[in-house]
Amino acid sequence: MKGLVTLGVIGLLGIGCTWWLMAKMNEDPGVPIMLAVGKPENGTAAVHACVQPGLSAHERPRVDIRGTVYWQEWVDDHLKLRSDSGDEVPLRWTTGSSLISDTRAGGLPDGYVVCSAKANTGYTFYYIPKKAESTHYRHKFRTDSDKIARETFALAK
User: Fold this and answer.
1) Residue ranges of the alpha helices (H) in the chain?
2) Distance of CA 41 to the CA centre of its chain
3) Of 83, 86, 155, 78, which Cα lies nearest the Cα of 119?
4) What is the SS3 assignment for 66?
5) How far apart, in Å, are the Cα atoms of 40 and each of 37, 44, 79, 84, 96?
6) pTM above the 0.90 mark?
7) What is the per-residue pLDDT across 81-92, written as a single tens digit (0 to 9) for each?
């Protein structure tokens, strides 16, 4: 009888551990985005972000009959940068970055978003995969030093 109770406890622990492990494995891992903050000068700092093909795969930018890709429209719908005080910083689409080299970007990026932000200020960068859905990712950072890193944008709850 003692062995049966022990076997039952071990079975319940096994089921509980399996349930916990499956829950952890099914969590959203976030979205990695290469983000660079330039050295603060004259009260401003350049902020650049790399747009990889996986980032724009959820909703591709609009393309007209002549083949013009409306990347700025896509940026306006899917990427937002707000200061801690709530001010929105306008982001601009470009095909190159002076802060992120092509070798650091990893692969062939679609392009980059750039802006000029206030130095020594906190910001939150938002990525919205589909503009019609409420799911979005965010990353908080400060513009107090120059930094280049692939940051994980966590799911905003």
Assistant:
1) 2-25, 71-78, 102-105
2) 25
3) 83
4) coil
5) 8, 6, 23, 18, 20
6) no
7) 999 998 999 999
How many domains are contained in the chain? 1
Selected residue with higher pLDDT from 73 and 16: 73
CATH number at residue 85: 2.60.40
Q: Within 10 A of 15 (CB to CB), how many other CB atoms are there?
A: 10
Q: Would 61 be classed as within a structural domain? A: yes
Residue 91 covered by a domain? yes
Q: What range defines the domain where residue 86 resides? A: 30-155
* 3 — pLDDT class (breaks 50, 70, 90): confident
For residue 137, the Cα-to-chain-centroid distance in whole angstroms is 6
18 within a domain of the structure (yes/no): no
**Spatial distance between the Cα atoms of 36 and 90, rounded to a whole number of angstroms:** 16
Q: How far apart are CA 125 and CA 51, in angstroms?
A: 13
pLDDT for the residue numbered 88 = 94
Structural domain includes residue 4: no
Whether 145 contacts 37, CB under 8 Å: yes
Q: Which is nearest to 143 in space by CA: 114, 105, 117? A: 117
